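Quick note —
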Amino acid sequence: METFRFAVTELESTHSTNDYLKSMDLASLPAGFCVVAHYQTAGRGQRQKQWLSLPGQNLTCSFLLKGLGLKPTQQIALLKAVSLSVKHCVADLTGATVRIKWPNDIMVGREKIAGLLIENFIQAGDLVSVVGLGLNVNQARFPAFCPQATSLCRVSGHHHPLPQVLLAVEYQLAHSLAIMKSSRHILDQMFASGLYAMGQTHEFESPGQGLFSAVVVGVDALGRLLLQQGEQIRAYLNGEIQWVF
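Predicted structure written out below.
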């Protein structure tokens, strides 16, 4: 496995670890530079959704990925590798069956345990990514959301030290990045087999179609969710539809 290490900077609190990391000179920072906050006052998910986390209970961090030889058109490969690393981390720490809900959530059953926010930039023609991760670790109670949230401690039944969880993420990320570099075909297969609701009928909502049911059949090379209704397969960009729970 290719060596990958986080270079960790810890903060007591910050507005958003992604925003904090983006405010730094990314060109001068090493790959794997990681900002960990014990508390985020305004953590964000996709499409400006807020990530709520109790102080000191969960893993809220952002890390820098660069120098991977990825072109701007290969953003989906990085998304798959990062998603798989968090999926495998949660599975190893809990023994649960874990799935990746397009585009950025990690699920145990019908409950969300983690979320990702990847912001991409171009430097000298190569892809540079700030990856935000919110992983529920030791928080036991959550507000009512759709989907409902869960945590490592709720699933496994015991407490998880946050530094050990970060090490587990680091280990799995090194493994997933190595697979991404050696075989995109294997990466694609692993991602498809771990996709939430793959081959199942699920309810969705969109401004144009309202509520509708469709079978999840995959994610295409552009990162669009593929849904089948009857004989027709249609691709949806992030933001065009919402999952209904």
